[in-house]
Amino acid sequence: MLRGKTIVLGISGGIAAYKGAAICSKLVGAGANVHVIMTTSATKFITPLTLQTLSKNEVHIDTFDENNPQVVNHINLADHADLIVIAPATANTIGKLANGIADDMLSTTLLAATCPIVIAPAMNVHMYEHPAVVHNMKLLADRGAMFIDPGTGQLACGYVAKGRLAEPEEIVDALSRWFSKPQLLQGQSVLVTAGGTIERLDPVRYLTNDSSGKMGFAVAEAARALGADVTIVAGRTSAEPPPGIRLVRVESAAQMLEEVLARYEQSNIVIKSAAVADYRPVQRFGQKLKKSRGDVLHLELERTTDILQTLGEQKKTQILVGFAAETEDVEKYALDKLERKHCDFIVANDVSAEGAGFNGDTNIITIYNKQGIVERLPLLGKAQAAERLMNIVANRLQQIKDDSHDR
Ligand code: PMT
What we know:
The chain is α/β, with parallel strands linked by helices. It has helices at residues 19-29, 48-55, 73-80, 91-98, 105-112, 125-128, 131-142, 168-180, 214-225, 253-264, 307-314, 330-340, 382-406, and strands spanning 6-11, 33-38, 83-89, 117-121, 146-147, 151-154, 160-164, 189-194, 199-202, 205-207, 229-234, 246-249, 269-272, 279-281, 301-303, 319-326, 345-350, 362-363, 365-369, 372-376, 380-381. Helix content is 34%, strand content 24%. The radius of gyration is 25 Å and the shape is globular.
């Protein structure tokens, strides 16, 4: 997958810079044309000659080392790169890119680049968790940069913690996978809801459900892998959201409705995997409820707005995918929801079945459209089930495009 690809390898100044040699060597071995840019600090850890020998290309360090009068080096590199990978990416380099600072060869090239940028951070764990670094990484992820998470292990500073540069094999595999994905959803905006909503009763108590967010997050990752620009609107989740995907947090069904509606117009595909409360307390108490209210406490609940149904009613060209979490008559209820909520697809899961539904890492889904079953999937990891679902949705989008072309 890397054969013939032009890859710019940016090496910034951390101890893991020495791994840049292995990354460069593996990329070249896989057939890529590798151009290395080093920061001055990186040259303190590994010599440019090593990288030049491995890449068989000149190594760039100084923006003003313009030895070819025909081109401006940093623009030329940025224009010709199929992908830029920064490994290791220090907190400083990440901070510069996030804030538009261009004061050396690597940062100027990054600012001039329009190709995908992959960032493999490596630093001390406290630096990695510093709010400024977290904020910068989120900014970059929101702009579409992909991150290869650091590993956990012995750090050069003596800590055993998260912050080690991912292994060279892992980085090269991730780049290879990126090039191997058919980008069926390139240029498409996909909105995914995940997790469960929270309906507050008083300042410390709320009604919610068992959704972990795993299914929605897997769907978002599968959409991103197909090249889509993905936004997740997530309620309460116990799973870690996927790095590098825009994330909007909400609590209640009403907030989810607002955030989803605000993005509906510009979305091409909406996948409603969140478990949304059907009812909320009529009254939200300002103070913590006291036991002195008696042995029995009656709560009055009212219906929330059905977000999926609202989207269905306002649907223009979007592909709308709902989920149906059922415990009985799965097909009947799923098809009823497909019809009532004007969905293009409904993904039914029998949440009472072993290995399916809430919380676990697996699911058993059946995908329906108005004609009936599109695909009945066996017990699969949520990632695999999501991949299959997103392929079906992407193919449907392609079909719609082809049909409008033929007309
Ligand atoms: O998060 P996990 O732990 O991985 O679990 C995954 C899951 C079980 C939550 C997921 O696979 C799933 O089934 N999600 C939908 C849960 C749900 O609310 O289903 P429902 O049958 O009650 O609702 C049908 C559809 O209407 C859903 O797309 C839901 O998002 C939507 N809905 C429901 C109520 C409401 N007020 N607004 C909605 O949009």
